[in-house]
Amino acid sequence: xxxxxxxxxxxxxxxxxxxxxxxxxxxNLEKNPGTITRIKTNEAGVFEMLFVAIGxxxxxxxxxxxxxLIVDGAHLKGVYKGTNLLxxxxxxxxxxxxxxxxxxxxxxGDCWSWWFSCLKECIGDSQDLVIISxxxxxxxxxxxxxxxxxxxxxxxxxxxxxLSLKKxxxxxxxxxxxxxxxxxxxxxxxxxxxxxxxxxxxxxVEAVVHRWSRAYCPLTRYYYCTSNSVESxxxxxxxxxxxxxxxxxEQYRKMVQDWYFKRRLVAAKMKYEITDWAAHKVExxxxxxxxxxxxxxxxxxxxxxxxxxxxxxxxxxxxCDCRKWQLFGIPCGHVIAVSRFLSQxxxxxxxxxxxxxxxxxxTYAEAVNFVGEFHKWEYPTHIKLIIPPRMDNPQPGxxxxxxxxxxxxxEPRVRHCSRCGEAGHQRGQCKQPFVxxxxxxxxxxxxxxxxxxxxxxxxxxxxxSYPTQTHHHNFPTYDTYQAHVFEQNTYPTQPYDxxxxxxxxxxxxxxxxxxxxxxxxxxxxxxxxxxxxxxxxxxxYPSHGYEQYDSQAYPxxxxxxxxxxxxxxxxxxxxx
Length: 576
Prior knowledge:
Elements: H1 2-12, H2 15-29, E1 36-41, E2 47-53, H3 55-64, E3 68-75, E4 83-90, E5 96-104, H4 109-123, E6 130-133, H5 137-146, E7 151-154, H6 156-160, H7 168-178, H8 183-196, H9 198-206, H10 228-236, H11 245-268, H12 276-288, E8 293-296, E9 301-305, E10 310-314, E11 319-320, H13 324-328, H14 333-341, H15 357-363, H16 481-487, H17 512-517, H18 533-536, H19 562-575
Parallel strand pairs: 3-6, 6-7
Antiparallel strand pairs: 1-2, 2-5, 3-4, 4-5, 8-9, 9-10, 10-11
Helix pairs in contact: 3-15, 4-5, 7-8, 8-9
Organism: Artemisia annua
Domain CCHC-type: 417-432
Domain SWIM-type: 305-343
């Protein structure tokens, strides 16, 4: 791991040196026209917060995007911990545009307030501005202080996580409630939720309905109910958030540069007068409204029956009773049905300018300039160096809970050393001399489980009455004549009465012949209850290997062979 860290440091640079290079990087980044960078330090020059907004992104948001900001924070993964703050907008093709980004020590109210104050210098504050985020108290406080005119909406997905919705049908009902456009339908579905899960209903009411619903929102949320857009950027920068601070800032600049370049090429090849995403929405609603009935009321007022509801569309005011047209910006199915009733070729004239081709091309008309290599940067002498923040290194693992209240009658558990048996320390810290295991407190011995009849072990049969020739001794033994001869590095084919003056370390210098001549071989067999090897194998013949039999009880066995009979006579003469 040390080699890997050293290699990464050679490629990426030191995290500490990255803080020293940060002010010089921001100075060279401001060569992009309109770019604003802010670095906040304490009195000692220690880093606290960073704000960066590229000039191209600022002009894009102010001139060509809907007044919608989606903000969130993500944790840094490198040596120096902190929070990565982001603010994004949405273009006419439902694509993410990075407006501003920054880094702070933590997601606190002071950090968000300072960061929003810098963002306010770039885009200003207005009554049409909509800010969507999660329900973090620091974000709520900062928006209230820095953007008093803007509308602050809550992310519906984060809100759902606090409701403990158990069934999938209840979750589907919740999303229909959030995305409902009309107050009547909203109230009807909320009543259904009250009957199914009252706890979730009361939590939604406490969360202030107009802050998370479309139906009661005083402004338009422009179709967006969640903060998934900024969460998508966080997902794209998981690995980048491990980089040093200067490289992380440069990664965001490269991301914006790449997005603008690719989307500029797409805008030049657009085949519709509106964006592809808007054209898909219009085509889908055109198919859905093909069978709807339209009735004229006045020159620009029409009554439309969609098979379930009766809606009135006013082409002069640009409104419809379903409220999708005015809240979305793209004509609803009722307006498309009216355009078909009027024999109009298309409905593109009812689409707002945010989704039209000229606006989309103007969004990415400008380019993001390259900063250059660090050895080509400008290094002004008036810039002060930044000291990296001091990081506390917590121990790995989950911290111990020392505040737990014990149960009634519960006593603290005393740990004992597994080496010496004493209390108060563990084996790794034991300083006592070694104690044998039999002197320690042994573990409790549990009685062994009695085996069943099928599992019981049956010892091998004894050979008081020797079996026939067909019975083979399957247990390994080294007490036979051939085995002893083989152990003494001699050939088994040599005559048995030959003396081999090979010393056996277990028989105190006796020769192999003297060992075989004695009546007893002091080799104990665990299956024969202390009998000597000679008593066990007194009638074993070297010519027949491990086959055993009683020549007295069965004189006719194996005596038909003359050579075998001679060998047996020699064997009996030798052992008396």
